[in-house]
């Protein structure tokens, strides 16, 4: 498997995993105050995964058991913790994901592919959301996510 194919598969499976984790967190009663935001995050992840699927297929990559990937995300999403801890962990994880997504785009046969542009842009939007949350601007943080959904292809 080429480096491009590995990064593409990791990105695709990461989006499926993210959909699972955010969906599960949104369903938890102890996170009901953040339900709408978590549902938006899950929607962004699911939409990004769907946009990557044609690239995975075109590359002839076996993505494995997608339901299992989502299940693993849901399993992680059922773990306890605080909102602030979750946002901090998300924020800390994002730079590596973003670096991999940028590298994936650089290696792609068509670096301007809309799915790859959306992959990078969605991670930037989630990062901006997390930055605003950490800075104490929870009153406006989810606007970044909503705006992304309204304007992304």
Structure description:
It is a single chain. With 153 residues, the chain is mainly α. It has one domain (3-151): Ferritin (Up-down Bundle). 79% of the residues lie in helices and 0% in strands. It has helices at 3-27, 35-58, 66-77, 83-107, 114-134, 138-151.
Shape: globular
Rg from alpha-carbon coordinates: 15 Å
Q: Got a strand count? A: 0
Integer tally of domains = 1
- Kindly report the CATH topology: Ferritin
In whole angstroms, the N-to-C terminal distance is 29 Å
Mean pLDDT, to the nearest integer, reads 95
Order of SSEs = HHHHHH
SS field, number of helical segments:
6
* Uncertain runs: none
Query: What about the largest sheet?
Result: none
Which architecture does the CATH hierarchy give at level 2? Up-down Bundle
Q: Class, according to the CATH hierarchy?
A: Mainly Alpha
Helix content range of the residues, please? over 70%
Note the beta-strand portion.
Answer: under 5%
Structural class label: mainly alpha
């Amino acid at each position: 498997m080429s480096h491009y194919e590995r990064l593409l598969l990791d990105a695709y499976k990461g989006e499926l995993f993210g959909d699972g984790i955010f969906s599960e967190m949104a369903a938890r009663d102890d996170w009901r105050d953040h339900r709408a935001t978590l549902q938006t995050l899950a929607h962004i992840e699911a939409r990004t995964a769907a946009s990557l699927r044609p690239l995975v297929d075109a590359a002839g990559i076996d993505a494995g058991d997608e339901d299992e990937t989502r299940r693993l995300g849901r399993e992680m999403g059922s773990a306890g913790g605080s909102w602030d801890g979750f946002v901090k962990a998300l924020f800390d994880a994002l730079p590596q994901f973003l670096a991999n997504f940028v590298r994936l785009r650089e290696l792609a046969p068509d670096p301007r592919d809309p799915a790859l542009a959306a992959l990078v842009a969605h991670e930037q939007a989630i990062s901006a959301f997390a930055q605003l949350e950490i800075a104490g601007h929870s009153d406006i943080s989810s606007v970044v996510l909503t705006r992304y959904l309204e304007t992304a292809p």
